[in-house]
Design brief:
single chain, Porin, 14-stranded antiparallel β-barrel, 6 helices, globular
Length: 384
């Protein structure tokens, strides 16, 4: 069997690979909030307050359950992997921001699957259902299957095969405050099993969305929670690690006289240094032995917080998308080797009653990940 040290090594290698890719009783309360949220400036104010309040989670972006940062659908992958602002009938986006649920996501089911490196597969599934005119729900699951492994002991003797899997349930609720603002929350029970090591966690997302015909903005606090059961125990009891907490703020703008939509999403707003796999002061040595220091500059670090996406959307039945993730580009770049790491592409089309999508992302230099999605409205087939 694998001992604790070997498990820790395998665990962190796998995590590194995955990281390379990121009701009526309340009516009076919601009416009070509606009177406050009447313009964009209040949305920005709330964003600033939330960011300042939640900086206590500054250790986030490290730790366990990193699969929660993977793209949830082919369209999400195509626009850079992060988007918390686009509000339409794509129920998959509710996995990134629960406030993106709308009356149009009622009865819509989405299925998503991706092939990654070395037989690693990840994906998601979600179904939206509304109760009344102002209560939007969705039920989803997000998973990653790291494949099968052959187990060996410290002497190199074969023991037995084992698997490694992570899964998280998504139970989401959203409600419009007025014609412009929607708020939502997601409860996420999490289970992870790596060989004989298991872990259980609980996380929550809180989101808000501002939407007009041509402009939308979203703010989400993601993965605020705790690891209830660690993978192993040490002298202090359960060894618990932080969840991949994140604060994301995004905007999307659709042009009035052109079928184009651009999006910018900022992530990790609670911490400045996001160079997780690159030290802020990288050192290289000349042939004469002198040290060359490469510092990550202010603008480089600032752009590592941003993800850019663009969509060509001539109708609701067709789209072509592209995205750029600067942080992924910098972390996956290799000196002397050109790649498309950080860039992503995708397209989707409606065939009969099904929306089919395809996304291509290069999480690692020279290795492409392909993501496939299919969604449909069950109301087209049965009465809901």
């Amino acid at each position: 069997m694998i001992d604790g040290k070997n498990f820790t090594a395998i665990f962190h290698v796998k995590i590194y690979l995955l990281r390379c890719f990121y009701v009526s009783t309340y009516d009076s309360y919601f009416k009070t909030l509606s009177s406050f949220f009447m313009s964009k400036k209040y949305f920005i104010l709330v964003a600033i307050l939330l960011i300042n309040t939640l900086t206590v989670f500054s250790q986030a972006g490290r730790g366990v359950y990193r699969f929660l940062e993977l793209p949830v659908s082919s369209r999400a992958a195509a626009v850079g992997g992060y988007n918390v602002s686009i509000q339409d009938n794509d129920v998959n986006f509710a996995l990134m921001n629960p406030a993106l649920l709308t009356e149009e996501t009622h009865g819509v089911i989405g299925l998503n699957m991706a092939n990654y490196l070395a037989d690693i597969k990840f994906g998601s599934a979600i179904y939206g259902h509304n109760f009344g005119d102002e209560n939007f729900f969705s039920f989803g699951v997000q998973y990653v299957d790291l494949g099968h492994f052959a187990g060996y002991d410290e002497l190199g003797q074969y023991t037995e095969d084992f698997t490694a899997k992570d899964i998280a349930l998504h139970l989401s609720y959203a409600r419009p405050l007025n014609d412009f603002f929607t708020v939502g929350a997601t409860l996420k029970p999490i289970f992870s099993a790596y060989e004989r090591y298991t872990s259980v966690g609980l996380a929550m997302d809180f989101g808000v969305n501002y939407n007009t015909e041509l402009f939308s903005a979203g703010l989400v606090v993601k993965n605020a929670g705790v690891q209830l059961k660690g993978y192993y125990s040490d002298v202090d009891g359960q060894h618990r690690e932080p969840l991949p907490f994140d604060i994301q703020l995004g905007i999307s703008k659709k042009f009035e006289h052109a079928p184009l939509r651009i999006s910018v999403t900022a992530n990790n707003l609670h911490r400045w240094n996001v160079a997780s796999y690159q030290t802020t002061n990288k050192q290289q040595t000349n042939l004469d032995g002198t040290i060359i220091e490469k510092n990550i500059g202010f603008f480089d670090m600032a752009f590592r917080h941003l993800v850019f996406g663009a969509e060509f959307v001539p109708s609701k039945n067709f789209y072509v998308a592209a995205g750029y993730n600067h942080r992924r580009n910098k972390e996956m770049s290799i000196d002397g080797f050109k790649s498309l790491a950080g860039f992503s592409f995708g397209a989707g089309v409606k065939l009969y009653k099904f929306q089919v999508g395809f996304g291509l992302t290069q999480f690692q230099a020279g290795n492409n990940a392909y993501q496939f999605s299919i969604s449909t409205n069950l109301g087209e087939f049965v009465s809901l």
